[in-house]
Amino acid sequence: MLIKDLINHLEDIAPLKYAEDFDNVGLLIGDKNTTVTNVLVTLDTLEDVVDEAIAKNCNFILSFHPIIFKGLKSLTGKNYVERTVLKAIQNNIAIYAIHTALDNDKNGVNAMICNQLKLYNQRILIPQKQTIKKLTTYAPITEVETIKNALFKVGAGQIGNYSNCSFTTNGMGSFNPNQDANPTTGKIGENHIESETQINITFHKHLEAAVLKTLFETHSYEEIAFEVTTLENTNQNIGMGMVAELKKPMTETEFLNYLKEKMDVSMIRHSKLTNKTIKKIAVLGGSGSFAINAAKAAGADVFVTSDLKYHDFFQAENNILLADIGHYESEQYTKSGLVAILTKKIPNFAFILSNTNTNPVKYF
Fold first, then answer.
1. Are 47 and 53 in contact (CB under 8 A)?
2. Where are the domains of the chain?
3. Is there a common fold for 3-101+333-353 and 109-126+239-330?
4. CA angle in degrees (0–180, nearest 5) for 14-15-21
5. Of 9, 11, 12, 214, which has the fewest Cβ atoms less than 10 A away?
């Protein structure tokens, strides 16, 4: 399998179109036409991880966090980023970062936390805006089903748990081909009236190129009338964080002990106890202070995240329990989750879980 083929599989899992604007995701180092030997899956890519890839004959590192986040003006090995990049290049090892593309996926980082905590009724906490588009086009009535079925095949017409969704209206289209035209129907220089159907079909924004390519390949007209608009509809499958529920309510102390056990953490920084029963849980792996108000608005009893600052804890306002379990700790199951997803998707290929602990934070 070539790197470009592996990337196609990764984009099926977490399309890069949904990564945050500030992020640096995708293939950071490597040639897309290189054959992949084995894939090492890690949370961070550091020198030790590159050494592990070399030892395990892996020439592709799938990293959650990007090693290159800001622009590099030189590669002299003066810091850990440059040393890691140099070692990867010198050993022909490609590096791909998936980061917030996976953060925003319904089966990504936050679903993995929910699964670890055995939570049910999972849904996106902060849906990403403007991720749904609508295609409107016009076609001869005889071609409508062929065009629709081709569009459905590439993923258009998916609305939540329903597929093959569309709406059509019959009408009369008019056109007059000029001397340079090569019309499928009608004559040059003459007004022509054709019985046509207006087709309306929605699709997720990462499918736009495939949807338009399919339209152009299946439509018979030389010039195809179409428009693509971006909708404000909420996409229930894309966005940051998750909110879910415990099977059985707990006291705050019981939940904090449960959280320590299930997330394998030695300590939890938390806000003042509210004496509320814990049932609804909001989670957001990594830095999640920006989502405190969203967690409160969702009616969560507790918000599990990391990297909360001193003043962030005041936002609890005795309405919610804020639990900071640590950045690495909140995302530690991401790499094993990715290995499980990829092994199921491509069962005849070797995906190797990195054994390197890349957590930079130590506790005394």
1. no
2. 3-101+333-353, 109-126+239-330, 132-230
3. yes
4. 110
5. 12
Give a three-class secondary structure readout of 131-174.
CEEEEEEEEEHHHHHHHHHHHHHCCCCCECCECCCCEEEEEEEE
**203: phi then psi, degrees, rounded to nearest 5:** -160, 160
Q: Quick one: pLDDT band at residue 161, thresholds 50, 70, 90?
A: confident
- State the pTM of this model: 0.90
Lookup: tokens for 26: 């995708």
Q: What are phi and psi of 275, to 5 degrees?
A: 65, 20
- The rounded distance, in Å, linking the Cα atoms of 43 and 16 is 17
Assigned CATH for 132-230: 3.30.70.120
Domain 3-101+333-353: give its CATH code.
3.40.1390.30
| Angle ∠(306,254,240) on CA atoms, nearest 5 | 30
Residue 105 bridge partners (DSSP): 238
Classify domain 109-126+239-330 at the CATH topology level: 3.40.1390
User: What Å distances lie between residue 95 and 41, 139, 286, 338, CA to CA?
Assistant: 10, 45, 21, 15
Which 3 state secondary structure label does DSSP give 39?
A: strand
284 near 293, Cβ under 8 Å? no
Residue pair 4/32 in contact (Cβ under 8 Å)? The answer is yes
Per-residue pLDDT of 20-56, as tens digits, reads 999 999 999 999 999 999 999 999 999 999 999 999 9
Answer whether 236's CB lies under 8 Å from 127's CB: yes
> Tokens 């997720």 label which residue?
204
Residue 290: closest CA among 260, 268, 312, 316: 312
Q: What angle do CA 240, 246, 250 make, to 5 degrees?
A: 125
